[in-house]
C-alpha cells in the first residue's frame, strides 16, 4: 500500500489500515517535510520517502491524501508509474471520481472515500463509492482496509458532499462544542482542567447512551429536561442563540464549499 501525502487524514487512514491487519512492511508513506517522514517511520514502522513515483512502484492500493489543490499535480506525476490494476483511493473533499479517471490511465480503478479523523483511534466513519473501472472486489478490498478505522458506508457519489459535511467535518463541530462548554464552565468558576474533562466525559457518555440505547436524541433530551428545571432554562438560551438553525446553515455551507472545490480544481 502506498500513502501519497500522509498528513492528518492520511495518518488516520494509515493507522486504520494497520489495525485492519495490513503489515507495516507492506506500506510506504510519503510526505514533504523530513520531520513528518521521520514521525511516520518512527510511529508506525512503515517505509517512508518523499519520492511519490518510487512509492507507487508495486503498490496494489494507492491512497492519495494531499489537499484537493495538490491532487492534480500528484496524479500527473505518478499516473504512468502505477502498477497494473492498482486501486487508487481518494480522500479529497469535493473532487469527483471523474477528476481522477480523466487523469489516470484508462481502466484505472478509483475509489472515492470520505473518512474522518476519529479513524486515528478506530472510531471513524468513512463513506466509499467506486468508479467506473472499480470492480466489486476492488471496492471490497478498500472497505476491508478502511474497516480498521471504524465504520464504512457505501454511498452514491451524489451524497458524498453531504456525508463530508456531516461526518467528514463533524469532528470539528463536536470539538467546537466541547471547547465552548468547557469555556462556559470556566466562566462559572471551574478550573480549566476540570471543565475540559467534564465536557469531554459528558460528550463521550452521551454518545454512548445514544449508541447503546438506540433511543431518539429528542427522547434522551427530554429525559434530561425536568419541567421547570435547569436544562430547559439552558436549552431556551441555545434556541435564542439560533444554534439549531446555525447547524443547518453550517452543514449546507460545508456541502457548498465541497462543490466549489470540485469546480475550482476541475
Ligand atoms: N483533515 C480531515 O479531517 C479530513 C481531510 N480530508 C481530505 O484529506 C486530504 C488531506 O487533508 P489533511 O490531512 O487535513 O491535510 P494535511 O495538510 O494534514 O496533509 C497533507 C499531507 O500531504 C503532504 N504532501 C503535500 N504535498 C506532497 C507531495 N508533493 N508529496 C508528498 N507529500 C505531500 C503534506 O506533507 P508535509 O506534512 O510534509 O507538508 C501533508 O503531510 C484533503 O484532500 C482533505 O480534503 C478528508 C476527510 C477529513
Ligand atoms: O475541511 C476540509 O476540507 C476537510 C474535508 C472534511 C474535513 N476536513
UniProtKB/TrEMBL annotation:
Domain annotation Pyrroline-5-carboxylate reductase catalytic N-terminal: ranges: 2-94
Described purpose of this protein according to its UniProt entry: Catalyzes the reduction of 1-pyrroline-5-carboxylate (PCA) to L-proline.
HAMAP family hit by this protein: P5C_reductase
Subcellular location, record wording: Cytoplasm
Keywords: Amino-acid biosynthesis, Cytoplasm, NADP, Oxidoreductase, Proline biosynthesis
Broad class of the protein's primary localization: cytoplasm
Top EC class of this enzyme: oxidoreductase
Limits of the Pyrroline-5-carboxylate reductase dimerisation domain: 157-261
PANTHER family the record matches: PYRROLINE-5-CARBOXYLATE REDUCTASE, PYRROLINE-5-CARBOXYLATE REDUCTASE 3
NCBIfam families, per the entry: proC
Gene3D superfamilies: NAD(P)-binding Rossmann-like Domain (3.40.50.720), ProC C-terminal domain-like (1.10.3730.10)
Its EC number(s): 1.5.1.2
Family in the record: Belongs to the pyrroline-5-carboxylate reductase family.
InterPro entries for this protein: 6-PGluconate_DH-like_C_sf, NAD(P)-bd_dom_sf, P5C_Rdtase_cat_N, P5CR-like_CS, P5CR_dimer, Pyrroline-COOH_reductase
A UniProt-annotated Pfam family: P5CR_dimer
Pathway(s) it belongs to: Amino-acid biosynthesis; L-proline biosynthesis; L-proline from L-glutamate 5-semialdehyde: step 1/1
Record protein name field: Pyrroline-5-carboxylate reductase
UniProt catalytic activity: L-proline + NAD(+) = (S)-1-pyrroline-5-carboxylate + NADH + 2 H(+); L-proline + NADP(+) = (S)-1-pyrroline-5-carboxylate + NADPH + 2 H(+)
Domain of life: Bacteria
PROSITE patterns: P5CR
